[in-house]
């Protein structure tokens, strides 16, 4: 199985100002990215884990999609969360994405884990090439 992990955040209380960001566009591109994964990898055993950091992703059903709660929407954090995820700065987007990836990994069951942003779209032949590379490398970074 291949696990795709996508951090998701729209406007929320613990986000600092993103300027003129169109939050509906973030949701739209996230849904398109999920549909692209399902289309390109339909012949594979996959799971798509969306870590909803702001607890605002629409309650819709999409095949292979599992939505788990992130932590960014919270006003306070437990001692376990602070120590486990080293939460020190609530206005740092990189930190929230990293925590979301870790939460997604905790919920994943795949032999391969793909960490991706919500605006990544795949070409048909990419996965076979990546899996061949992973057979001889511990991890692959593609940007």
Q: What's the short version?
A:
It contains 4 helices and 4 strands; from the N terminus they run E-H-E-E-H-H-E-H.
Question: How would you sum up this structure, described in words?
Answer:
The protein is of the alpha/beta class. Helices cover 34% and strands 16% of the residues. The chain contains four helices and four strands. The chain has helices at 23-40, 79-85, 93-107, 126-134; strands at residues 2-8, 46-52, 65-69, 112-115. A four-stranded parallel β-sheet has the order 3-2-1-4. The longest helix has 18 residues, at 23-40. It is globular.
Structural class: alpha/beta
Count of helices? 4
Mean of pLDDT: 82
Order of helices and strands: EHEEHHEH
Distance from N terminus to C terminus (CA atoms, Å) equals 22 Å
Please describe the biggest sheet, giving its number of strands, its sense, and whether it closes into a barrel.
4 strands, parallel
Principal-axes geometry comes out as globular
Radius of gyration over C-alpha positions, nearest whole angstrom: 16 Å
Number of strands: 4
Low-confidence stretches: 13-18
- Percent helix among the residues? 25-40%
Task: State which percent range the strand residues make up.
Answer: 15-25%
Q: Order of strands across the widest beta sheet? A: 3-2-1-4
